[in-house]
Amino acid sequence: MDAVPTSSGMPQPASHRVSWARGMEHKGYACRNISTSTALQTRTHVSCDIKGDVAVVRFNTPNSKVNTLSRQLSSEFTDVMNEIWANEAVKSAVLISSKPGSFIAGADIDMIEACKTSQEVTQLSQEGQKMLEKIEQSPKPVVAAISGSCLGGGLEVAIACHYRIATKDKKTILGTPEVLLGLLPGAGATQRLPKMVGLPAAFDMMLTGRNIRADRAKKMGLVDQLVDPLGPGMKAPEARTIEYLEEVAIGFARGLANRTVSAKRAKGLIQKITDYAMALPFVRRQVYKTVENKVQKQTKGLYPAPLKIIEVVKTGLDQGHDAGYLIESQSFGQLAVTKEAKALIGLYHGQVRCKKNKFGTPQREVKTLAVLGAGLMGAGIAQVSVDKGLKTILKDTAQQGLDRGQQQVFKGLNSKVKKKSLTSFERDSILSNLTGQLDYKGFDKADMVIEAVFEDINIKHKVLKEVEAVIPAHCIFASNTSALPISQIAAVSKRPEKVIGMHYFSPVDRMQLLEIITTDKTSQDTAASAVAVGLKQGKIVIVVKDGPGFYTTRCLGPMLAEVVRVLQEGIDPKKIDAISTAFGFPVGAATLIDEVGVDVATHVAEDLGKAFGERFGGGSIELFKLMVEKGFLGRKAGKGFYVYQEGVKNRSLNSGMDEILARFKVPAKPEVCTDEDIQMRLVTRFVNEAAMCLQEGILSNPVEGDIGAVFGLGFPPCLGGPFRYADSYGAKQLVDKLRKYEAVYGSQFTPCQLLLDYANSPSKKFHQ
Question: What is the C-alpha separation between 415 and 475, in angstroms, rounded?
Fold first, then answer.
């Protein structure tokens, strides 16, 4: 159970704006004959048709891909429901969306953020609770007809209904992602879900925020009936499916009203035994305890929402309905104003922004992509490309390397088959778009070439010249280097305007970030194409200016140099890992070096050291070089700071490191060696370098800086990124810490001018 918002888990509704239905053009007794409060033409988000004795309520937020529970939608929905309850001719109701991909994607985040106090947010929650309680208690049965995303507040609406029907479609997902925003479900779900799906499944949903597909939701008892999607006919498949879903839902609504259909679900033996066990207080106590321990272990107590969720569920089950609903609304209000929720919501907005192409639509769509180098990165790039329908060529210089790369792509796709998110037919169909080869055949048809060859400027120059001899004039050349300046790579190009950096993170199929690097000569259209490809691959894209280490590698450099210094001062790798994860980093600092690869870290440290000099100093690079010499390259070699063995979870320290660490040992400075000081030495160097990148124009805005740090480097999500952290911790306090360490270690801790400016005027914030 991943209770921590990680880089892989932030919720992804396409947009956070909210509004509902423009009103469908159905002939018949439209709402005219029952409208009492808001005049029909003034309703923009919710509309209503009467089909015989069934009211069909449609959600349709104008100018938005998704429906969200905004004030406007909620108010119109309340009015429509009141009219339905007052109309004797209507015996039941169906709730449906006019948008094929979205039932309701959640509450309107802007509405929550606009609240000034926790009391205002609590009031929002209580209004939602009251409305949904009225639906739950409604004498006229209400059926939710779900197609597309049914998340957060949308799921809360659905589970307050008497019956739920969903389309068995990949786009239909149900879930409670509030925890990923530092919140909890605030309209009754903490009280309804445990009764509906059982305590363990309810905790799993609310503490992980995971999406649940329709077929799984049916097995859990979250939906009652599934409808198969229809193929194309006179209309598009989506439109036909929605119409069919509506017909089926109307049939069930009628059946519930005249009692020919029962909303009671037959429970299996296992479910009955589980329900019986959960009714026993001592069993429940055991479940709470287990879940609390797991949450504590995973969140290190840095995220208040998961523990609040447990407390709220517990109160409802142990103290009853009123106590449960009250603590849910109060906790929702308290969480909404925490700095953790603000940080996570900031990241959510940042993600939405980084999923758009700020350079506009490229002149030509990239349909054929060629990847040079079938190593870990090259094969990863090929996998995420072919997976999204791009025709992909994977080229290597050796058959053995090519075979390994193609096998990696197969394994990656096959793991989706094992998880049942792909069929074996779909996997084979995807793989048919991948061509593995040792020559440049077919490169004359490529729209883009991404090189993922060894980090050596001479090799990069060699492949660039070879590629330019065979590709068409419009083809873009992108480099997946992690630190070599793109302008240096482009120096031998005949068409530097077509050269760009596309820095992926390992493992490519799991890491969401793509850092795109433009030089002074890169054309706008080249940048637009690179961003379009990244977005098609499902990446969160940041665009930065060229320079040694770009943005991400450059921020990581000083921090890792500090890690080495701490190791030299006698703190062992396990302790450094514990100190850094206690601060909120998902991966410990020593483990991170093992994951990156000690040889790669050495290479990058040398390059950045040459470019930035003393500021990138700290620990001795010779320590890394000796590790490389001994073959301690990290996870990929089976040994680094730790020993890695297949299937062994608890790694032991590599005893071969003792001699290396002893050789490079330096005396520790007791005045800057507490756990908090070690955390702050690592973090202040990271944040200072991030601010320097903004100061120099490498970053164009703080939002991309925060997104890059969290999704590419594992900066603690609960802090929202280096710039959000500087705002909440205080620029002046950060500068004071830097000055304290500068007095001991010198210029590596000298605060940059931008931080000093912000420290001198407290009203200045990176995020207004």
Answer: 33
d(CA 277, CA 677): 48
Give CA separation, 368 vs 137, 403, 516, in Å: 56, 21, 19
Name the residue with higher pLDDT: 226 or 9: 226
| Dihedral over alpha carbons 119, 121, 126, 129 (to 10 degrees) | -160
Helix 376-386 vs helix 399-418: crossing angle, to nearest 10 = 50
Predicted pLDDT of residue 300: 87
pLDDT at residue 231, as a whole number? 78
Catalytic machinery residues: 515
CB contact set of 672 (below 8 Å; sequence gap of 6+): 681, 740, 741, 744, 745
CA geometry: angle 711, 715, 717, nearest 5 deg = 75
Nearest to 31 by CA among 74, 90, 75: 90
Rounded mean pLDDT, 449-467: 93
Query: Closest by alpha carbon to 217, among 159, 262, 257?
Result: 159
Distance CA 277, CA 284 (A): 8
Q: What is the rounded distance in angstroms from the CA atom of residue 538 to the CA atom of residue 134?
A: 40
For the segment 467-491, the average pLDDT, to the nearest whole number, is 94
> Average pLDDT of 575-597?
92
Higher pLDDT pick, 277 / 594: 594
Q: What are the tens digits of pLDDT across the range 407-432?
A: 999 999 999 999 888 889 999 999 99
C-alpha 349/C-alpha 161 separation (Å) is 30
User: For 204-222, how does the pLDDT look when each residue is reduced to its tens digit (9 = 90+)?
Assistant: 999 999 999 999 999 989 9
Q: How many angstroms separate the CA atoms of 562 and 569, rounded?
A: 10
- Residue 750 DSSP code: P
CA distance 391 to 385: 8
Q: What is the end-to-end Cα distance of the chain in Å, rounded?
A: 35
**Residue 46 near residue 83, CB atoms below 8 Å:** no
Find where tokens 């990929």 sit: 636
The closest alpha carbon to 183, from 115, 103, 130, belongs to 115
User: 311: part of which helix (H) or strand (E)?
Assistant: helix 304-319
Mean pLDDT of 551-576: 94
The beta-strand segments (E) located in 168-268 are: 173-175, 212-213, 225-227
The 10s digit of each residue's pLDDT in 265-301 is 666 666 667 676 666 777 778 878 888 888 888 888 8
Question: Cα–Cα distance between 336 and 342 in angstroms, integer?
Answer: 7
How far is the C-alpha of 442 from the C-alpha of 440, rounded, in Å? 6
